[in-house]
Amino acid sequence: MSIVVAKTAGFCYGVKRAVNEVYDRALKKEEHIATLGKLIHNRQVVEDLEKMGVKAYDCVEDVPEGVRLVIRTHGVAKDVIEKIEKKNISYVDLTCPFVEKIHKIVKEYYEKGYKIVIIGDGNHPEVQGINGWCNNEGIIVYSCDEAILDKISEKRVCIVAQTTINRENFEQVIQFIKKTCQGAVVFDTICNATKDRQSETLHLAEESDIMIVVGGKESSNTRKLYEISRKRCPLTFHIETFEDLPQNINYKNKKIGITAGASTPSRIIEEVFTVMDEMTRNEQGMDFAQMIEESIKTLNTGDVVTGTVVEVRNNEVIVDLGFKSDGILAADQLTDDPYLKPSDIVKVGDQIDVFIVGVNDAEGKTVLSRKRLVAMENWKKIKEAYESKTILEGKVIQVVKGGVIALTEGNKVFIPARQASERFIQDLSTLLNANVKFRIIELDEKRKRVIGSVRSVLEEERKGLEEKFWASAEVGKEYTGTVKSVTAFGAFVDIGGVDGLVHISELSWSKIKHPSEIVKEGDVLTVYIKDINKETKKIALGYKKQEDNPWLVAQAKYNVGDVVSCKIVRMVPFGAFAEIIPNVDGLIHISQISDKRIGKPEDVLSIGQVVDAKITDLNWENKKISLSIKALIAPAAEAAEEAHEEAAEESIQEQE
User: Fold this and answer.
1) Residues 99-144: pLDDT tens digits?
2) CA-to-CA distance for 177 and 458, rounded, in angstroms?
3) Residues with catalytic roles
4) CA 208 to CA 516: how far, in whole Å?
5) What is the per-residue pLDDT across 37-79, written as a single tens digit (0 to 9) for each?
6) By the 8 A CB rule, do 312 and 347 touch?
7) How far apart are CA 7 and CA 199, in angstroms?
8) Cα angle vertex 393, ends 391, 395, to 5°?
9) Strand spans (E) along 207-341
């Protein structure tokens, strides 16, 4: 014989929350607790609460003064809340979040003018409560009834469902209604836990010889489980307690499936198994008590378990833990890296170790964390790195007030702004997604807080580079460096652990107003040491290439006596400067501007004017070139006079 217990069997989130809350309050005996209607549809729980003094009242009018009234998971109508508040009754609203969501939908669409259709059991308190949020004007449908269909004539229809309705029934009714209402707004409000419970029951029934459905006879969701199971497994039994177990059934060598309604306590499930253990034992000698322990074993917060990935979604991973419920591993609990998706990390079938954060969240699931486990596993490494001052590597994943967060070994490390670099960084977002090396400088084990420093690592690296640099540095040696900063007087360049200054005059052979005209931060330059002072640690760097020196270009090109075409660029009282080639000017003295006496250069020349001039003197050492326009005027006049004389002689000869 084998036994399989549905993972979803037992209390759902809403019921568990309500039961725990009422039991806690009743045990404290600090106040008189009462419930509006039976807390849950389970006779044993209700009777147990009555023994503790928790009485159930059918209507608000019956509730006496001085009690703390509990609104159960089924919820109540809007006017019931108003009555409670009007009577000044102190109350605790434990309406299931899924039911509360339906109330909001119904209220919203009713106020918009929609006709509300509720698919469910009209006698169920949940459905009655839902109807109360549309002024009890909703149309309640349980099956494909033509009479009901005739009542739905409005074009604007909003359809909701009882949270525990049979899914198959729900879908059939929806299709039925849509024959008349093509534009109906449909909300699938069947609780996720209900969906999972019904789906699992269906599959379990298909594989079982005998099905046991445990739960109260008044429980709507338990009855639906029974109906679903019976369609697939004829030997299905609906029992409330172990006393209802059929005695004339041979369980031996049979595969038995067990499920339970959302209002069935685990204690009752365990009692059922205990009695079955007394009835028979399996072939391997394992009694039912052992099977119970294995099958309905629970998880506790703080447990570390191994699970199998069964589904990978965009924002979460579903993990089969081998227990009653699957686990949900949210993307932000899988990794701290915001740029990675779950599918980048795991795939279906992977075995992963996870940390149990909490059992039974709002969807009846178990909340898991992988990154917390990884962080726990690597905390020891972090401590060792702190004690040994080991350099770690991490990725900057977040910019926060006062610094950045780096991720390393599954742990977040806070790096203050002053420790994020050697120099002040105005915009810390420039570090986002960068890989950095750092050392842990502070560790708070109790708060699991870690503070790191990139600066200490950079300073240490720079110190090593400095020692290496000064050991081999010499004037004339060439380096490839990175511009670290630009000032009005030059640019500082990192040439391997040390910074040197390229003066503004060394950045270009042309005259510039600011270094930023030539370089910017981050540029890579080839520079050489012009001057070095090992005592003061100051380094003057050269950047201009000698072969580009315009005076050397001019020296190779021009000689005394050459005639050049030049442009007037500047006037002075004693003459005019003319550009021969870019950045090389020559002086035309005032006496060499014209063959006539002039008062000032402007009498003959103007800025921008292009003239021909003769090189009369070259002083390359002092970068001086003398030019003369006059030197070209005299020969031209003499040539003109000679031409005139020759013409005259030819005229006389012709007359003779």
Assistant:
1) 999 999 999 999 999 999 999 989 999 999 999 999 999 999 888 7
2) 71
3) 126
4) 81
5) 998 888 888 888 888 889 999 899 999 988 999 999 999 999 9
6) yes
7) 11
8) 150
9) 210-214, 236-239, 255-260, 304-312, 316-320, 327-330
Instruction: Work out the pLDDT band at 571, boundaries 50, 70, 90.
Output: very high
- What is the pLDDT, as a whole number, of residue 454? 92
Identify the pLDDT of residue 3. 76
Distance (Å, whole) CA 288 – CA 275: 9
Report d(CA 627, CA 614) in Å as an integer: 5
Domain annotation for the chain: domains and CATH numbers: 4-9+201-294 (3.40.1010.20), 304-369 (2.40.50.140), 388-458 (2.40.50.140), 473-544 (2.40.50.140), 558-635 (2.40.50.140)
Q: What is the mean pLDDT of residues 470-495?
A: 88
CA 643 to chain centre: 93
Locate tokens 């001085």: which residue? 66
| Rounded CA separation 539/491 (Å) | 12
Q: Distance between alpha carbon 140 and the CA centroid of its chain, in Å?
A: 44
Q: State both tokens at 143.
A: 């099956």
CA distance 394 to 411: 10
Give me 167's structure tokens. Answer: 């899914």
pTM over 0.70: no
Position 550, amino acid: P
Phi, psi torsion values for 237, nearest 5 degrees: -125, 130
Residue 636: the pLDDT is 57
Output the six-digit token pair for 494: 């990192």
